UniProtKB/TrEMBL annotation:
<feature type="transmembrane region" description="Helical">
    <location>
        <begin position="56"/>
        <end position="80"/>
    </location>
</feature>
<feature type="domain" description="ABC3 transporter permease C-terminal">
    <location>
        <begin position="64"/>
        <end position="178"/>
    </location>
</feature>
<keyword id="KW-0472">Membrane</keyword>
<comment type="similarity">
    <text>Belongs to the ABC-4 integral membrane protein family.</text>
</comment>
<dbReference type="GO" id="GO:0022857">
    <property type="term" value="F:transmembrane transporter activity"/>
</dbReference>
<feature type="transmembrane region" description="Helical">
    <location>
        <begin position="108"/>
        <end position="131"/>
    </location>
</feature>
<feature type="transmembrane region" description="Helical">
    <location>
        <begin position="151"/>
        <end position="172"/>
    </location>
</feature>
<dbReference type="Pfam" id="PF02687">
    <property type="entry name" value="FtsX"/>
</dbReference>
<feature type="transmembrane region" description="Helical">
    <location>
        <begin position="331"/>
        <end position="353"/>
    </location>
</feature>
<feature type="transmembrane region" description="Helical">
    <location>
        <begin position="286"/>
        <end position="305"/>
    </location>
</feature>
<feature type="domain" description="ABC3 transporter permease C-terminal">
    <location>
        <begin position="330"/>
        <end position="444"/>
    </location>
</feature>
<feature type="transmembrane region" description="Helical">
    <location>
        <begin position="416"/>
        <end position="438"/>
    </location>
</feature>
<dbReference type="InterPro" id="IPR003838">
    <property type="entry name" value="ABC3_permease_C"/>
</dbReference>
<feature type="transmembrane region" description="Helical">
    <location>
        <begin position="199"/>
        <end position="220"/>
    </location>
</feature>
<feature type="transmembrane region" description="Helical">
    <location>
        <begin position="16"/>
        <end position="36"/>
    </location>
</feature>
<keyword id="KW-1133">Transmembrane helix</keyword>
<feature type="transmembrane region" description="Helical">
    <location>
        <begin position="232"/>
        <end position="251"/>
    </location>
</feature>
């Protein structure tokens, strides 16, 4: 199976690009923050600086494990779906579910090792940059120098390998249990139905987000400084993950709502509506990171705007602990948002490029390149609308409880332009990426694309 995995990686290197990029970016971020733990353990570091560095390294390591696993699982599942013909052939010639599982797991582990190894140098530079920012903000002493060593390496390899293994087993289990015919049908149309385990996992994350929201609005009410942030900030993250897991069902509902307007958009709109109805499962992969990006960004920006406004109105002077917590919060959230933005681009490119054959067949039966691009634009609009809509919903479990806790009112502070900017960035990422990938795919002659 190891030999088969290596051969598969060589033959379909492009098909594994999305999973590799998810692992690479996740490992780079994890090791960059892990290097702060190496720095904290070096000689001559004062206790205050050591505490700040340890908190950043440990918090990001925890969130990193969750997010990297989430991202790698979605991209690896998409990659396995795109190889339906190969999986069907293996099953037809006698491959057992166990052999397919070992092959997929072997591919994932090879990708993980390669991704982490290549991410070491960028991670070292990124870690140094983070330390410079902390020093410039007065978070740590200027005498501290950056170290990149055992903690960073172990976190990078450990978390990424665990995430890759978990993702591979999840993707392989679903594929291995299908018949050859079912695999081909699933790849062609996808399946908007979700397993009970996925629904249960979504329910757990939604509960965690809701629970933190309730705690923020009740137990944290009237508290000063960063205590409400400690519960309000993660609430949107948990809730966003829960909604992202439900992306196939959410996309199906929004696509049904928008079917009428799409149908009135001519042939391209009708094709977009048909694709959204029949390929909800594969397309929902792109919705997941949009929900994360919108929910976390909106929640964080309005939480910070509300906190700043309340402090200013009360004449409160920010303490050193408050500034440390604020900086830590913004750095962690920035890391998550960067990773989510990368995954938006990554997922959409992987989904769109894999449709080369479909685009070629459409052109052979009379569709013009412009109509294909209009179809992709219609699909992208629905994907962006779904992600922004439910990302906005997720942000409310942070915004409203935090506003109640800090000001006594459910109405947050902050200009509407903050939200419009987040929504515009999320939509622009989705549409620009889809159209750019489709435009590049259309460069292939129709006859060649249709026969690949």
């Amino acid at each position: 199976m190891l030999t088969l995995a290596l051969n598969s990686l060589r033959r379909r290197s492009g098909g594994f690009a999305a999973s590799f990029l998810a692992m690479f970016c996740g490992a780079m971020i994890l090791m960059a923050f892990g290097s702060l733990l190496d720095t904290a353990g070096a000689k001559g570091v004062d206790p205050a600086s050591e505490s700040t560095l340890n908190v950043l390294g440990l918090v990001v390591g925890g969130w990193g494990l969750l997010l990297v696993t989430f991202a790698v699982t979605s991209t690896l599942t998409l990659s396995v779906r795109q190889r339906a013909a190969e999986m069907a052939l293996l099953k037809n010639i006698g491959a057992t579910p166990g052999q397919i599982t070992r092959m997929i797991t072997g591919e994932a582990l090879i990708l993980a090792v390669a991704a982490v190894s290549l991410a070491i140098v960028p991670a070292a530079y990124t870690g140094g940059w983070l330390l410079d920012r902390l020093t410039a903000n007065g978070q740590i002493a200027t005498s501290i120098t950056h170290h990149f060593g055992g903690f960073a390496i172990h976190i990078g390899y450990g978390v990424t390998l665990v995430a890759a293994t978990a993702a591979a087993l999840t993707a392989a289990r679903r594929t291995a249990r299908m018949s050859a015919t079912a695999s081909l049908l699933d790849a062609a149309a996808g399946d908007a139905r979700m397993s009970r385990k996925r629904v249960a996992a979504a329910a757990v994350f939604l509960f965690l987000g809701t629970d933190l929201a309730v705690i923020t609005a009740t137990a944290m009410r009237g508290k000063d400084d960063f205590e409400p942030m400690a519960t309000a900030g993660p609430a949107a993250i948990w809730f966003s993950i829960g909604l992202a897991l439900l992306a196939p069902a959410l996309l199906r509902r929004v696509a049904a709502w928008l079917e009428g307007p799409l149908q009135r958009g001519g042939a391209a709109g009708q094709l977009a509506a048909l694709n959204l109805a029949q390929r909800t499962g594969p397309m929902s992969t792109a919705v997941m990171p949009i929900i994360l990006f919108t929910g976390i960004a909106t929640g964080t920006l309005y939480m910070q705007a509300t906190d700043n406004a309340v402090n200013a109105a009360s004449g409160i002077t920010e303490t050193a602990d408050y500034r440390n917590a604020e900086t830590t919060n913004m750095i962690v959230i920035g890391m998550i948002l960067l990773f989510a933005a990368i995954m938006v681009v990554n997922s959409l490119v992987a989904t769109t490029v894999d449709r080369r054959r479909e685009f070629g067949q459409q052109r052979l039966i009379g569709a013009t390149p412009r109509q294909v691009l209009q179809m992709v634009a219609g699909e992208g609009t629905v994907l962006a609308a779904t992600g922004v809509l439910f990302g906005t919903l997720a942000s409310l479990v942070t915004i409203i409880p935090f506003s109640i806790a800090r000001s006594g009112s459910p109405v947050p502070h902050g200009n509407i332009l903050l939200y419009l900017a987040v929504a515009a960035i999320a939509a622009a990422l989705a549409l620009a990426t889809s159209l750019a990938a489709a435009h590049r795919t259309l460069r292939t002659p129709a006859i060649d694309a249709a026969t690949t």
